[in-house]
Give the backbone structure.
Amino acid sequence: MSFSVWAPKAEAVRVRVDGTDQAMTAGAGGWWSADVDGTDYAFLLDDSDDALPDPRSLWQPAGVHGPSRRYDHGAFRWTDGDWTGRQLAGGVVYELHIGTFTPEGTLDSAIGKLDHLVDLGITLVEVLPVNSFDGTAGWGYDGVLWGAVHEPYGGPDAFKRFVDACHAKGLGVLLDVVYNHLGPSGAYLDRFAPYFAGRNDWGPGLNLDGPGSDEVRRYVVDNALGWLRDFHVDGLRLDAVHALLDRRATHLLEQLAVEVDALSAGLGRPLTLIAESDLNDARLVTAREGGGYGLQAQWSDDLHHCLHVALTGETSGYYADFAEPGALARTLAEVFFHAGTWSSFRGRTHGRPVDTRVLPGHRFLAYLQNHDQIGNRATGDRMSATVSPGLLACGAAIVFCSPYTPMIFMGEEWAASTPWQFFASFPDQELADAVRTGRRREFGAHGWGESEVPDPMDPATAERSKLNWAESGEPAHRGMLDLYRSLIALRRDHPELADPRLADLVVEQLGTVLVLYRGDLRLVCNLGATAVTQSLDAAGGRVLLASGDAALAATTVRLSAESFAILQTAGSSSSQPTSASLSANS
């Protein structure tokens, strides 16, 4: 049984296997190897007695400070041999966190909720990071062993069972991965080799372009390919790629896209790379033939910010820019609000325009809420805590009738009352105190009292953030769930609603009324507090779906306050049946 590790500056390396040390042999490129029989292992560098886990570990049953355990990918019995994958275009993404998706907070318990997602109309499940981090509870973005599934979630076999079960129900799986930094506890990579270069806002950054960076880049790419190949994952969401500092001619993201495309061809199923980026640069999702990196999609935070301001009225902090009249319509049509234009909270111009003639909308994800935009609020309050059901319904309709790929955050579909707060569980008391103090200081600077900011280290904070599944069937929430289900079904049944051609999209914003033109369909939203009568460009044929009272006349529609209607113009050849009006307050 062979063990290997990259430690180019070490003069001696031992591997401790099941409690017994064995000297390793130096090889080319700074790699060390040894043939030893055993299961649990760790590495000791030079004359140190510190037994360190394998940087490429696949299993950490004793946590990130304990020994690694051998894991055989071939031992798992998959049942998804007929799975051909799910493309992103035309799909609907559902973002969830394993630790708070169910009361048990495990991968196996999450399997029991997959029928809910299928019934809702979801096609792709995006799972927040499952890599190993210190402690039991956390968001997952403080991971330090990127290839090992967090043991409290169930470990590697449990994640495979989850993916296998998703595929059996027709659901693709996207996994959130973090390559821009490592967490503050258990990050031993720099003890082995020059993995780190500088720091960013969250921790040590990777050495992607300095001496020794060939192996560091290989470390990242191999990790990504392993999730896609060995765990049968259908795609990766790449966290905060703007923090990947790489000055090489071929950026790490392009290298990754090339190798993932090759793997996709070999596996015979689509593999998707989605970037989270603060750059407002469509080069990420532009094909390599067009000079881009060739990723399949990226998040669109500008659209979220416009929707948030329009629905909540909040204009503090970075939301201030998005309060500009017409911002929502402009961003719906052009993808980015900041597109080579002034950004007040950055104090500079930002972004570049998207060529809507050539780039399809499905390469950008649209959402009302996500883990960041909820969890990074001081109290982790969801939009449903302050926004009326009518306005929530309007926001959902805009997302699902847009040319973008819709994404919803777990519980959003029934306007969950549970918050999703920032939580962690670092065993080291000094680190825990530092995180607690830093969190309170950060929000104190924005006017929040310390007592108002939940203690991230209190187990009750993580417990409060778990979904309450019982409320999805309660009258106050069931109407919203029915509405989400109907919106997704309507998007599926009427292809014009999922049409990704941005150049063909027409959006009008007149006061509190927003109108989207989607082929023969019209989405008319009244975001105001009083009823309105809106003129139509063509005779209205019928109401396909409405969240309130919608009275259709020859060339007008009258909408009640804070409501929407999806209309089919007269003369359409579609034979789809008329949907019953639904009340978001029912």
